[in-house]
Design a protein that fits this description.
The protein is an alpha/beta fold. 39% of the residues lie in helices and 24% in strands. Strands 5-6-8-10-11-12-13-14 form an eight-stranded mixed sheet. A four-stranded parallel sheet has the order 1-2-3-4. Strands 7-9 form a two-stranded parallel ribbon. Helix 2 packs antiparallel against helix 3. The termini are far apart.
Length: 350
């Protein structure tokens, strides 16, 4: 069987098959050749993920336009930049037409530097067709200018009613949010469906003095279920919980929606850990990787008896969590906890 039949012709052929015929011969049809396999998977698969380079956008648009059933099943789309120096005829226009056809798209990613503003404008023109988009990311955003960061943030705001994921992976993004919205929590509270937040920063970004108030963040974003703070090289003052907020948290109901929490940092304050223990009582996954140690502010908290009491509370806290990975130091002690599905594995102390 020829492997060179146009995709739209294959779509037309398969459209004459009944559901019973497809169900009975789906496996056999896939074995004919590569073109048949991709066509059958596109039409009769449950969800479709597409990774496409710029020069193939025109072909993709033709396939989607010839088979509306295929377009409705596209769940994730990632567009790569074409690295060869050739003249592509306005690929962002084809991209815009593709977005208008893929009405059930939930994930969109751009790995493009040259011509990125044109693609962002194409997305802006198609926002009314992206009602189910949950995740929108730009790879290598740290290589983009401040104006492109602003464009990306404004697009996310236009899509805020459907977006469930947001990532801060660059110092410029953080600074833009601070400058224009006052803080990241003031920006994020505009996303009613936000379930997953990832903050990934490093000292190489040359950021000035900054901090994230966890208590304020979680009070503004009440729908968060999965939160990651990857702050390698930063200190305890970058991820804080004020003493007043800690005292207030003991008098308020716990934050029941959060299920997964991950923190990687150089140091962490004892108040932050106490806030986690008092507020997040329904965690399913906890990951704490603190390379240097836990810091206690008051002299009374540094006594051996106070530290032992803190660790006893922490051990009781993690017994209720299914998956735990904790590794940190505290005043001469190295503490490591690993726990999976309520099975306690190891405690190490020096």
């Amino acid at each position: 069987m020829s492997d060179n039949l146009p995709r739209e012709l294959l779509f037309k052929i398969f459209s004459f098959l009944s559901e019973e015929e497809v169900r009975a011969n789906k496996g056999t049809l896939k074995l004919v050749n590569r073109s048949w396999y991709s066509a059958v998977k596109a039409i009769y698969g449950s969800r479709v993920t597409i990774n496409v380079r710029e020069e193939k956008l025109q072909d993709l648009h033709r396939d989607l336009n010839s088979c509306s059933q295929f377009a409705k099943k596209v769940d994730a789309l990632k567009v790569y930049e074409f690295w060869k120096e050739v003249d592509l005829t306005l690929p962002h226009l084809e991209f815009q037409r593709i977005l208008k056809l893929c009405t059930n798209l939930s994930m969109l990613s751009l790995d493009i530097l040259d011509g990125l503003p044109a693609y962002l404008e194409a997305i802006r023109q198609a926002t009314n067709h992206l009602r189910y988009l949950q995740k929108f990311t730009i790879c290598n955003l740290q290589a983009c200018s401040r104006s492109r960061h602003m464009f990306y943030i404004h697009l996310c705001l236009e899509l805020r009613n459907s977006l469930t994921y947001f990532e801060i992976s660059d110092g410029t993004t953080y600074k833009v949010l601070e400058d224009h919205y006052g803080s990241i929590h003031q920006f994020l509270k505009q996303f009613p469906q936000l379930h997953h937040l990832k903050v990934r920063l490093s000292p190489t970004m040359r950021m000035s003095r900054w901090s994230i108030n966890l208590a304020t963040l979680f009070s503004c974003c009440k729908a968060l279920r999965h939160t990651e703070f990857l702050l390698a090289g930063f200190l305890s003052q970058n991820c804080v919980v004020p003493a007043k907020a800690l005292k207030k948290s003991t008098q308020e109901p716990p934050y029941n929606s959060l299920r997964h929490l991950r923190i990687e940092s150089t140091t962490i304050h004892g108040q932050t850990l106490r806030y986690i223990m008092s507020k997040f009582t329904r965690l399913e996954t906890l990951s704490l990787n603190i390379t240097c140690g836990v810091i206690f502010g008051k002299p009374s908290e540094k006594t051996q008896q106070a530290i032992e009491h803190f660790f006893n509370q922490f051990k009781e806290f993690i017994k209720t969590i299914d998956i735990v990975y904790v590794d940190f130091k505290c005043y001469g002690r190295h503490v490591s906890y690993k726990q999976y599905i309520h099975i306690y594995i190891k405690i190490a102390s020096l």
